[in-house]
Amino acid sequence: MMERYGPREAFMARWWSGRAADRPVALGLAVAVAVTLACGLAPAGEEPGADPPAARGTDGTDVDGTDTAEEFEADIGDAVALAERYWAATFEASGQRFQPIRRVITYERDGEIDCAGLEVPRNNAVYCSAGDFIAYDLNWAFAAFRQIGDAFVFYLLGHEYAHGVQVRLGIRYDFTIQQELQADCLAGAYLGDSVRDRSLTVADGDLDEFRDGLFAVADDPGQPWFAEGAHGTAEQRTNAFFNGYERSLAACDL
Description:
Layout: E1 2-3, H1 29-32, H2 69-93, E2 103-107, E3 114-115, E4 118-119, E5 125-128, E6 133-137, H3 138-147, H4 150-169, H5 176-196, E7 200-201, H6 206-216, H7 234-247
Parallel strand pairs: 2-6
Antiparallel strand pairs: 1-7, 3-4, 5-6
Helix pairs in contact: 2-4, 3-4, 4-5, 4-6, 5-7, 6-7
């Protein structure tokens, strides 16, 4: 997946109807780290905390040739830059100023990063509203990049960036799953719109990589939908993402 920047137009005035843009947003401590991409999930076939897998292709593991640290770092930077540009343009189209998420950081050990005093675990990616940052386990994300493909990196950053957008919009939820599925939809919209306006080029196999990634981060069978921290089944997450990808932000219940 290779990024190219270009102009775009977006409309979100109706989202702000009846909503005070500068209203302070108060999220409870449990919610601050509940906005995760995956809780304790290692890429398929890997144990939590395992070293990143070697690139493979003849033993049944799908690898798209993106397996170096340099490629991973470049894709992370492209995904963050694209998300910033997309949401800035979207907010600007409605007459609002967008403040980019303050920073994106990595960690490798339990306890290395905390969100308002709550430890961020390994094998995870989170948006922390208390510090307005995204943090991801470097080894976990790199392993997923090598095993699933570079499209997963754009989804991962898109999902976590969407949580920052939710906070900026002051959106409230009754259940965690609502928050997570909407973030999947917003990530899909950001990627689909970026492809349509030629800011992003999707290579052969990238849509399958999105699907593989969504299946990998889905809740385990039997997870109650109403449980704190529930993210959704593989079918729910895939549907939410591709609804946004195909129908843009209108599909995301904003």
